[in-house]
Amino acid sequence: MSDPDLVIGADGLARPRWAASDPLLREYYDHEWGVPVRDETGLFERVTLEAFQSGLSWRTVLAKRPAFREVFHGFDPEAVAAMDERDVERLLGDARIIRNRRKIEATVTNARATVALREDGGLADLVWSFMPSSTPHPDRFADVPTTSDESRALSRELKRRGFVFVGPTTMYALMEAIGMVDTHLVGSHRRGTSGVWT
């Protein structure tokens, strides 16, 4: 019996439905989603994009990522931390990005919190310190968790450190995106490719 949650592409590879037909999502799934990210800039970018995704489709965020990278200085935390209200107002007029004042302001807030974290090991070390001892093995979308004890704990700690838009569901999505958990469906050609989980 065929798996309704996996689609076999023309290349013979099995992917989840969400990554099967759209070229942008397929490229992201095949080469980026679930690949470990352990550097400050990469983590700050992922935290930012997950915050912007809240309430929207990932496809929307991914399509706007080049513009986000431009307006947020390549996600250099120091450069973003130096942004002020004039920058926020300017970005609210930029149709290339998601123009949400709270999320734009959150990016600046989180950049400042990221810089402050350097005195205590840094963002990457903090995030990866919440890696769980095991990972899910979902056969179907319905088996994929949306939060975990670790994502709730990470959310609490980041909030304590001054971060915003870092709720438990958003942090679980971050953990999936950076390979801390492997929620590729069993049977997907990407399952187990992160090198984190064997």
From TrEMBL:
Q: Sorted alphabetically, which InterPro entries does this protein's record hold?
A: Adenine_glyco, DNA-3mA_glycosylase, DNA_glycosylase
Keyword annotations for this protein? Metal-binding, Zinc
- Report the GO molecular function annotations: DNA-3-methyladenine glycosylase activity; metal ion binding
Among the GO biological process terms of this entry, one is: base-excision repair
**Where Zn(2+) is bound, by residue?**
H184
Taxonomically, which superkingdom? Bacteria
Q: This chain belongs to which protein, by name?
A: DNA-3-methyladenine glycosylase I
